[in-house]
Write a structure and sequence with these properties.
By secondary structure, the chain is an alpha+beta fold. Helix content is 34%, strand content 25%. It binds ligand MV4.
Length: 449
């Protein structure tokens, strides 16, 4: 096992990774920006190194600064958390060249999954269901018009380098296609430095369902069931739950088996998430893969009893899955996560500043992952997630009751938070019945006007 690990992240995920290291007897090194001097990830690490000014590009995303810190502290490995450098194949390559283990998949695999159209073809080859669409990049609007004739409208143009919904356009007829093709392409070229597009059949009201996987460095892959992540606004998830009410045991098993075979073939390693859309007929279709630990990983930890971050560390140190996972993985109960953001609950404007009061709920089956505290400061430079409230019940009804109780005891003063928005969502009849799709929040917010 590693002697010393650097955590290249901040906030709750930095603390989450530090905790896993501590429990495994690994020494820890935090890196921080000038805005995070008084952060808990700095306080609770064995060593901490300032890597630059507040702006992420000047600190947490500054590869030479992070690598220098790793060399000065003489670490064996770097855990990137989520966001920031976590899916940057070039960073993983620099780690490799510097003889530092990157805790994640090999850069070649990260690069493959980062090219969404290549990932799609790789999944297709391994018999993972994909949506009807193009076989590769469509270079011109004319080619796209031809392709759409076989796929059938509506279609969606997506950027091969895409993410977060940018460089995407829904197309409902051939007349509109050329303009939307060029709009998507220039948006993608601007955002990602690459304007290449591919096409998929557009699903009007999809559910977003994702499968958690773990792969060791010996070719073994396991799936840890699914998470339902349809409650989101502008591509930011707000509430996630596991398992999904819509996935039957048979679907879970079939998708699980196919994914294990596919990811073993690809040479996947470490933790990953395979995203699917579910259509109105409850069919699942692969859309993309995330090659990192995800924000919502605790709900999977609750239903499986597996510590996913410890698993990442063990896998990266060469351990076999059979020595990490129980002989038979089973799902127990139901887990739900609410993302508590520092933002206005109706206007969604970010809210930075000093937290004057902070009470975190607890009790049986209640977990709060946060790096915030009373008198703590939310800087304006980073994403607005300040805490994750996660609950585990014997069934969905108990999980909902626990979440409502816990939300009512979560007190944050001095800044705006999304706590009251979550309380309103939990009152919603459709949400309570599990009747929702990725358009839920749009309808919910329109009804509240
Ligand atoms: C789609 C889709 C409908 N049909 N693809 C949005 C972000 C990117 N990761 C994939 N996205 C979508 N792809 C097809 N063929 C609808 C979305 C989508 C969405 C997906 C998951 C969660 C929330 C979403 C919100 C709007 C659109």
């Amino acid at each position: 096992m590693f002697r010393k690990v650097l955590v290249a992240n901040r906030g709750e995920i930095a603390l989450r990774v530090l905790n896993a290291c501590r429990e495994l007897g690994i020494r820890t090194v935090a890196v921080y920006s000038e805005a995070d001097r008084n952060s808990l990830h700095v306080r609770f690490a064995d060593e901490a190194i300032c890597i630059g000014p507040p702006r992420p590009a000047d600190s947490y995303l500054n590869v030479p600064a992070v690598i220098s810190a790793a060399e000065i502290a003489d670490v064996d490995a770097i855990h990137p958390g989520y966001g920031l450098l976590s899916e940057n194949a070039n960073f993983a390559e620099v780690c490799r060249a510097s003889n530092i283990k990157f805790i994640g998949p090999p850069p070649e695999v990260t690069r493959l999954m980062g090219e969404k159209e290549k990932a799609r073809q790789a999944m297709k080859k391994a018999k993972v269901p994909i949506l009807p669409g193009s076989d590769g990049i469509l270079l011109t609007a004319d080619e796209a018009v031809e392709c759409a004739k076989t796929v059938g409208y509506p279609v969606i143009m997506k950027a091969k380098a895409g993410g977060g919904g940018r460089g995407m356009r829904i197309v409902r007829n051939a007349e509109d296609l050329p303009n939307l093709f060029h709009a998507a392409s220039s948006e993608a070229a601007n955002a990602f430095g690459n304007g290449d597009l591919y096409m998929e059949k557009f699903i009007e009201r999809p559910r977003h369902i994702e499968f958690q996987v773990l792969a060791d460095e010996h070719g073994n892959v396991a799936t840890l069931f699914e998470r339902e992540c349809s409650i989101q606004r502008r591509h930011q998830k707000l509430i996630e739950e596991a398992p999904s009410l819509q996935v039957t045991p048979k679907m879970r098993e079939e998708i699980g088996k196919t994914l294990c075979r596919c990811l073993s073939e690809i040479g996947y390693q470490n933790a990953g998430t395979v995203e699917f859309l579910m259509d109105e007929d409850r069919q699942l279709y692969f859309i993309e893969m995330n090659t990192r630990i995800q924000v919502e990983h605790p709900i999977t930890e609750f239903i499986t009893g597996v510590d996913l971050v410890k698993a990442q560390l063990l896998i990266a140190s060469g351990e076999k899955l059979s020595n990490i996972l129980p002989a038979k993985l089973e799902m127990r109960g139901h887990a739900i996560e609410c993302r508590i953001n520092a933002e206005h609950p109706q206007k969604f404007t970010p809210s930075a500043g000093k937290i004057t009061a902070f009470n975190v709920p607890g009790g049986n089956g209640v977990r709060v992952d946060t790096a915030q505290y009373a008198e703590g400061v939310v800087p304006p430079y980073y994403d607005s997630l300040i805490a994750k409230l996660i609950v585990h019940g014997v069934d969905r009804a108990e999980a909902i009751a626990k979440m409502e109780r816990a939300l009512s005891q979560f007190v944050v003063q001095g800044i705006d938070t999304s706590i009251s928005l979550h309380q309103a969502i939990f009152q919603d009849e459709g949400f309570r019945k599990g009747e929702f799709d990725t358009k839920f929040m749009e309808r919910f917010l329109a009804d509240k006007q």
